[in-house]
Amino acid sequence: MTKGQNQLLRDLVRITNFKATSDLPHWLKPPERETLRAFLEERPEIEQLSRYRFKIEGREVDFAPIIPLSEPVRFPPQLALYIGMAQMGLHELIPGMVESLKARIKSN
Q: Which residue among 20, 24, 62, 101 is buried most deeply as judged by most CB within 10 Å?
């Protein structure tokens, strides 16, 4: 990860207070362990400014650029209805008819 991506990840961890590491403590060198301990024990002051903007210890963080909003899908309602009916036919009606025919054949 780039430094910027790493910082955003750390900021997200601070905001959510979901702090974890995949490294086992005994894998870390003593200075790394102390850095990790300080990070896990910190309780930063966090203020939510808007949906994706936060202030962490006075520093503004904006997650909006990394959360792209996709354009809504313009789907003709009539086509959606036909697709829904076809799915219902494939998944419900046809199997039901097959089972009904099997039962009829068995009873004869």
A: 62
Question: Quick one: which H or E segment has residue 105?
Answer: helix 94-107
Split the chain (108 residues) into runs of 10 and give each run's mean pLDDT: 91 92 89 92 96 96 87 81 85 86 88
Phi, psi (rounded to 5 degrees) for 54 = -135, 160
Reported residue count of the chain is 108
Backbone angles phi, psi at 86, to 5 degrees: -65, -40
* Amino acid letter, 33: R
Q: Is the pTM of this model over 0.70?
A: no
Residues 99, 54, single domain; the answer is: no
Assign 60 to helix, strand or coil.
Answer: strand
